[in-house]
Design brief:
Elements (H helix, E strand, L loop, with lengths): L1 E5 L18 H6 L3 H13 L4 E5 L8 H15 L4 E4 L8 H5 L2 H6 L14 E5 L2 E5 L20 H11 L2 H4 L2 E5 L8 H5 L12 H10 L4 E3 L7 E7 L2 E7 L15 E8 L2 E11 L4 E4 L3
Parallel strand pairs: 1-2, 2-3, 5-6, 6-7, 7-9
Antiparallel strand pairs: 1-10, 4-5, 8-9, 10-11, 11-12
Helix pairs in contact: 2-3
Bound molecules: fe (ii) ion (2 copies).
């Protein structure tokens, strides 16, 4: 079973940010490239994964066109590959996006859960693997979006614990996916300015619940850098993986666009690979940090 993981693709167009109030978004749009994203998605599809996980921030600022375009690109490049999609904080940037359900409108077919659920979490059951997607990106009316921290609700954590006891999950390798990181990487935590204004406020509680269930792998986004932590969760060492942004246009390999390929065999994580865009070779290649 091969799982591909891409995140923080931040699809956006400069022409949507021409008003004086929103002009600072143009610099953010320019940090990402649709062309690079397409090359990564094509490379990803060529590896024929069994399942794709997209861990949020599919848009710049929750514009309806950004949702539609990101869904269109995923469909165009990945066809009918089974996919799990969850929202990031940038997908909850505008009240109208939440009230009118832009995320659900664009990604609806991928939001159907194999276990009964009303919204998140959602569960996708595959050959020997269960993927549970959590929503860690609340919308808080009246609070500037840039100040809204990540949080996984107790209701979602309760459902995750219930599901973990079900026979459908008993013999499956359990992957839990969310947008926000549980902890910073060692490199990021040593940085003078880790640029982390919106962390997961109940990360310790999420780790506590993960320690109570037989989780085998945690996937996340939000950090635009590749990282891997091996956390002790309930006495078990669990890999926590983030590939970094899947569309970042930056010549530095540690910042360049990436995605992950994770091979799961006989109930264990047999291989972890990251693929990176090399702007000098104009090609996607293996990443060796
Ligand atoms: Fe992001
Ligand atoms: Fe984010």
């Amino acid at each position: 079973m091969l799982v591909a993981h891409i995140t923080d693709i931040h699809v956006g167009r400069e022409e949507d940010y021409r008003s004086p109030e929103e002009v600072e978004w143009i610099a953010r749009v320019r940090k990402h490239s649709i062309e690079i994203l397409k090359r990564l998605l094509e490379d990803l599809a060529a590896h024929a994964p069994d399942h794709v996980v997209v861990t949020g921030d599919l848009t710049q600022s929750s514009l309806r066109e950004e949702f539609r375009e990101s869904a269109r690109l995923l469909r165009q490049c990945l066809g009918d590959l089974p996919m799990t999609v969850l929202p990031g904080n940038h997908d909850r940037w505008r009240a109208e996006a939440v009230e009118e359900g832009f995320f659900e409108e664009s990604f609806g077919p991928w939001l159907r859960s194999d276990l009964p659920s009303d919204g998140f979490p959602i569960c996708h059951l595959a050959d020997g693997v269960a993927i549970v997607a959590l929503d860690s990106s609340p919308f808080v009316p009246g609070l500037p979006p840039a100040e809204v921290c990540g949080e996984v609700s107790e209701a979602q954590l309760g459902r995750l614990r219930e599901w973990a006891r079900l026979p459908e999950l008993a013999d499956r390798f359990l992957v839990v996916a969310l947008h926000h990181h549980l902890r910073l990487s060692e490199v990021d935590s040593r940085a003078a300015d880790p640029k982390d204004p919106t962390p997961l406020v109940n990360a310790a509680r999420v780790e506590e619940v993960l320690g109570e269930i037989p989780v085998d792998l945690v996937l996340h986004g939000h950090r635009h850098r590749q990282m891997r932590l091996d956390l002790d969760l309930g006495g078990k060492t669990v890999p926590v993986l983030c590939p970094g942004s899947g569309s970042r246009a930056d010549p530095r390999s540690e910042r360049a666009a990436k995605y992950g390929l994770y091979r799961i065999e006989d109930g264990r994580l047999a291989e972890v690979r990251f693929r990176v865009w090399n702007p000098f070779a104009e090609a996607v290649e293996d990443y060796h940090p």
